[in-house]
Queue: 2 jobs
Job 1
Amino acid sequence: MGYENWEKALVENVETTISWRRHLHEHPEPSFEEWNTRAFIAEKLKSFGYEEIEEGVGGGGIVAYLRGSKPGPVIGFRADFDALRIHEETGLPFASKNPGVMHACGHDGHTAGLLSVAKVMKQYEAELSGTVKFIFQHAEEVLPGGGKSMVDAGVLEDVDYIYGLHLRSPLEYGKVTYCSGYAMAAPDFFEIKIQGKGGHAAYPHATVDSVVVASYVVNQLQSIISRQKDPKKSGVLTFSTFKAGDGANNVIADTALLKGTVRTFAPEVRDLIEEKISTMTKQICEAHDATCEVQYTRGYPALYNHEAETALIADLFTETFGEETVEETPLRMGGEDFAYFLQEKPGSFFFVNSGNAEKGIVYPHHHPKFDFDERALLLGGKCFLSIIDHYLTEKETSKAEASVTVG
Ligand SMILES: [Zn+2]
Ligand SMILES: [Zn+2]
């Protein structure tokens, strides 16, 4: 029987999967510079018997095809493999040997987990009706990201459905979660330079006080969220940096620098906030005889999980793992460049909780002490197996009929 055998083989490969994860963890490489990581992935895929491998897709991505013996749909699975410029402080025996670089988002786990699925399924490819396209993506963490360039290079042209997962620490291990519709935000960034006219603090009338003008900007722009945006649609505007003056008591600051981030889901809210940041800042500055430069940088688009494919995996996972393991999760304000894949083809991005309070795995992603419970590698792998089973296994008549009725 298909799935049972695959699952057994995946379980048997757990120790190896963990050793791959630890190898990747020990040798992290930052976004766009993952040379050894890419070589490691390609070498593993070749060792599993893959012949149809594409390297350098969209710059640094790697793709491998698993072709079933019968025709059927093409399912894409994506895992990212870049690390972050963070100095690791976990003290783990397999901690980073590359100072200042760390796998602090779990991408080492995403890649090891998907490699394991690729290895196991290679033995069973003759059973399949259709194709699995394994997509290993470089540079998720740094704009413009590897996702967009891989999609632009046509990586999804022959793909019918696309799926991916993200580990989630420190949420306690044991659950797989899904979120239909908007699931992760579009993370944008802005920088505002306000040019006043510095001078003696005792003679404000002869100056243009950049601190006062910048304060108006910080305060007034809050009303974009509270008064201009549709309250039914989420949006966040945060000023994270306010720099002016040089420590003196008696000098009016010549310039002020503001930096911040915007998080949105609906494109019209994103457009509105971008436009208002620029026009309001200019008008406030004008009203106070200051000038300004506003720079707005768009990050990844919001990640939108397709309803039908999300409902499908929610059912599949529930069937495979039981109700107690599968849960709906609310949308989050973090960003993820898998959004580009989901703009192109139907699919869903799901989450495998990977914290473990007892083992001290309590730190969030991008923290120097970030870690995850390695049991999540197997759970995540099983999720992919159940998706393969759904799309690429010919079901007996009764089961097929049942799924038609449900669908
Ligand atoms: Zn990250
Ligand atoms: Zn990530």
Note: Residues 398 and 404 are 10 Å apart (CA to CA).
Job 2
Amino acid sequence: MGKVTGFLEIDRQVGKYQPASDRIRHFREFTIPMSDQEVEKQAARCMDCGIPFCHGPTGCPVHNQIPDWNDLVFNNKWEEAIRNLHSTNNFPEFTGRVCPAPCEEACTLNLEDAPVAIKTVEQAIADKAYEMGYIVPQPATTKTNKSVAVIGSGPAGMAAAQQLARAGHDVTVYERETKPGGLLRYGIPDFKMEKNFIDRRVEQMKGEGVTFQCGVNVGVDLKVEDLLAKYDAVLYCGGSETPRNAGIPGVDLHGVHDAMPYLVQQNRRVGRENIDSVGWPSAPILAGGKHVVVVGGGDTASDCVGTAFRQGAVKVSQLDIRPMPPEKEDKLAVWPYWATKMRTSSSQAEGANREFQVATLEFVGEDGVLTGVKCCQVDERRKPIAGTEFIIKADLAFIAIGFQGPFMGGVIADLGDRLTLNTDRRGSTNVVADDKDYKTSVDKFWTAGDVRRGQSLVVWAIREGRQAARAIDEALMGATTLPR
Ligand SMILES: Cc1cc2nc3c(=O)[nH]c(=O)nc-3n(C[C@H](O)[C@H](O)[C@H](O)COP(=O)(O)OP(=O)(O)OC[C@H]3O[C@@H](n4cnc5c(N)ncnc54)[C@H](O)[C@@H]3O)c2cc1C
Ligand code: SF4
């Protein structure tokens, strides 16, 4: 374990942020990295619990061996630490930045509100490994003469492609957008994760023999049937991209947008890409000098808030239909599970006006242009309370209330009735496959990530990509050494 008395002597610390007034002037990451010595001290707090709740099943979806690498970092063995971390997670620099860290929620020291700074240590291990040159291509020593096509290059597709290439298969990733990365590149803003981290992994994967074919919309530019004929296996990791329909009157007013076109545009701007790309609106959506209202309470809504502040919005309000959560959870009732409690994202902390238990009734405007958002208070059952209506001034409004499934064009339309879909308890339409063999109703066709489980998290996408790669390897070779 780290230091036997570490948790008694050392206070929890995580990387500090640049002040909000500074960080909203740019789109770069703003966490000030901790020194190696500070990270080693944080790792020393780990108690190497008999049952490490951080590690799973309520903690880490990829089952990172957290106590082991905490110990390695404490003992200054950074190279061994990255080797251990890579054995369960292909991209710890992604999760170290954007994961909500259910591991910290499940950590035994969270019973005292001071969990081990697991996410900070994870990010530090990955960043240090790059700095020291430990992360290099690991091409397979033996080739299998089998070939796999992966559709979609989000974290699920990338993790699967890397695992399959390392198992000796010839892997080609087909991606509709101009560059690989999925929502990591075009959804999540640079201030949460800069995109050079994706580029470095893509280079590593190319060094391992993975081919990336970007700008190919499978099902439209290329028939799925052609892929099935050409490859021994096809893995569909297309994500869950269709925005949920809010059904709010006034959505046609100029100034009302779904969240994704806005975030994609800004990510393209920062990445010096043309914003006028296929499938996305070409007119610039910019919040500078505007009153902005964001409808929704999740990650996507929060990313709209942070982006609007960086573009120079005058005021940003965020509307959440859920009641304001308690400041502190009833620890003994919920630990080690994810707790509902008041959380403030770094974007919200930049000055968002947050309204809880509020329903959006209508977008109102003049001459076809948005001027305000009509709202009302709701009761615990989300029913409007009569007489509580009010209007928030708005020049720009974003709808960020989640996703209802994959694009139904492309792959799904192309396969038609052959591909079985279902609707989950959140009302999302997903491609049917279980989480053991990831096999769909179509022969030679597997699926993983958000397209299978519904909109989720990067860490779950990595897990599904890894597990689907194992299932495919086993199906092609009769046995596999890839981990689940
Ligand atoms: C705005 C936003 C913020 C988020 N923030 C976080 C966060 O902070 N932390 C976190 O853990 N999770 C976050 N998430 C969720 C997370 O990004 C997703 O769960 C994750 O990216 C899913 O990975 P995936 O590989 O399944 O799909 P995606 O990342 O969606 O990738 C799917 C890829 O498939 C491609 N594709 C689709 N159809 C085709 C086709 N027919 N042909 C070729 N290519 C195709 C798409 O272009 C895309 O590149 C966020 C999501 C959003 C929308
Ligand atoms: S639960 Fe916390 S203290 Fe226990 S092993 Fe995991 S990180 Fe260490």
Note: The pocket of flavin-adenine dinucleotide (ligand 1) is lined by residues 98-99, 151-157, 174-177, 182-184, 187-188, 192, 216-219, 237-239, 263, 299-300, 303, 410-411, 449-450, 455-459, 461 (CB under 6 Å).
